[in-house]
Amino acid sequence: MGNTQGIQFSTVDTFLDYLPEEELEVVLFLRKIILECIPNCKEKLAYNVPFYYCHSRICYIWPASIPWGKVEKGVAIGFCKNASFLDETFETTQFASKSVFSTVKEIDVALLRQQIYEAVLIDEQIVKAKRRKIQ
Prior knowledge:
With 135 residues, the protein is an alpha+beta fold. Helices cover 37% and strands 21% of the residues. The protein is built from three helices and six strands. It has helices at 12-18, 21-37, 109-134; strands at 42-46, 49-53, 57-63, 75-79, 91-92, 97-101. It is globular and about 45 Å long.
């Protein structure tokens, strides 16, 4: 299966270099919050955008300039395990829960941190449940 997007970033830095200035500001701010909340996470490109992993995918950042992500404007932060996200500020899809921001000022940092910590807890609960099944 080939790359149908026409763009292939080799590193997060090349991804960041591609972004327009208004999206870059939001992406860098979201990235900073994620890395502060999950300092031991792995940051890897998947679908040509950064995903953040511990035991599994926790969250991702998807700007509108990466068109195949169905983000029409701004920058989305999405969570890969949406079962416990009941907050109506997040749009729920089959794959993830996400919120879209056009500016840094729109971001409720305290709420976002809480959601990141919750996503990490879900990730840890999943790995613990899998370990219990193995034993």
